[in-house]
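FORM 7B: Structural annotation worksheet

SECTION A. Query
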Amino acid sequence: MPSINRLRGSDFVRSVRSVLESGGYLGRSARLVIGVSGGPDSTALLAALVELQDDCQLELHVVHVDHGLRAESRGDAAYVRRLCARWNVPVTVRRVDVPEMRRAGGLSVEEAARRARHLALLEAADAFGAGAVVLGHTTDDQIETVLLSLLRGAGLRGLAGMVEESESPFTMPNGKRVPILRPLLGVTRAGVMDYLKERRLRPRQDASNADPAHLRNRVRHEILPLMERIREGASGAVGRASVDARVALEYIETEADGLWGAACEVAADRESVRIDRSAMRGAHAALRHVVFERAIATLLGSAEGFTRRNYLAMESLIVEGQTGSEISLPNGLFLSCTNDGHAVLSISSPSVPLPELVPAEMLLDGSTMAGGWTFTSRVVVGGIELCASGERASLLPGELRVVIGHADGQRRLCARARRPGDRIRMAGGTRKVQDVFVDKKIPRMWRDRVPIVVDGDTGEIVWIVGVAGAAMVTVVGENSTVKGTIEA
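SECTION B. Predicted structure
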């Protein structure tokens, strides 16, 4: 919607109605939670919604969040209560502990206050059964938000700014999301003040809005006026660039739907996303970025807190990373490359895909269970053919079928996990098993589940299953045939 610089009261209300109508909230007894601080924007928003309440069949519930950061905060709450009593609108006042949230999340004061405010609004929306949370952001807020995003190094999403209807960046207590409506995004702050004057409303004024310690205030009171002095209409140009960025972002997100379906598989417990590296490599970087955001939001509910540096690190790992490569990401996420052309984004360290391993002595000419692993052996000319199998054992880079040389085929074999100091005698000499794992790029968390096959009499390692064999081992391809089976 184009910006409205000077609005008569009826025009102001019509602009709010237009946004509600486009979102489908009129005429169906829609329940709306309105965040009201008592300041000019939210007071004007509430007044307009009260005007529309009967005609548009709206059920309103006001939530005032007291951050407890200013001495005047109790006065703000009292003002909102009086306003709601005057208009017969139910109100909930929530006092939140911003310092505690700041300590727990390692956030700035502004970030902690925003998170606390959103969570309080969502809890109220859940209790009220609201279809949306309505906020009073204006065109001026949009321009300030875009400039702040650019100053912090945000990309296209930061330039796109806010939209009139979007999902909350946080989830409700029951895990659901609720839409956020911003009916005043097409209205300037001057238009808000005109409407308040016409309605003879005197909102609360927050003295902290003039404090230059807050970056947003410096943008509002220093950068924007300077931009206008340098070039008249500069603020409007920022707003138009934001609209263009939003259109481009909407197109990219639509195109990314196909890549998401082709490249990503969400685990049943929704604690990991498996990503096809080949499909991602063939896609444009802009689409990959959106898919990364979507994967993060799928696991955490929001991609808040992830920076351009995080996305570049993810892209580098997906496109160029070696098998076993891994990185830690914000909020407990972990991205690792498997060796089957996939990567796994998971909450905390990813689960190990290999079967559990239990030590076992193997039967000759039979099958032996070693936890989740199964070993099948038979005596052949020149030794023992040994096959290993287990769920997702094929993730290991080497063959799972070998012939272990022995003149009479009577070698006693055992399977166990690795031990400190393990060495294997290979064609070029003995090597540490640890070094073999590193060379073959076996992820660290997998290594205790890779079976080590040893001679039961001497303890000599003859095969690191799916990784490497000792000098006396002949690797047999999956489709190869071993001839000369010795009859028992």
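SECTION C. Observations
The first helix runs from residue 9 to 22. The chain has a mean pLDDT of 85.

SECTION D. Sign-off
Analyst initials: ____
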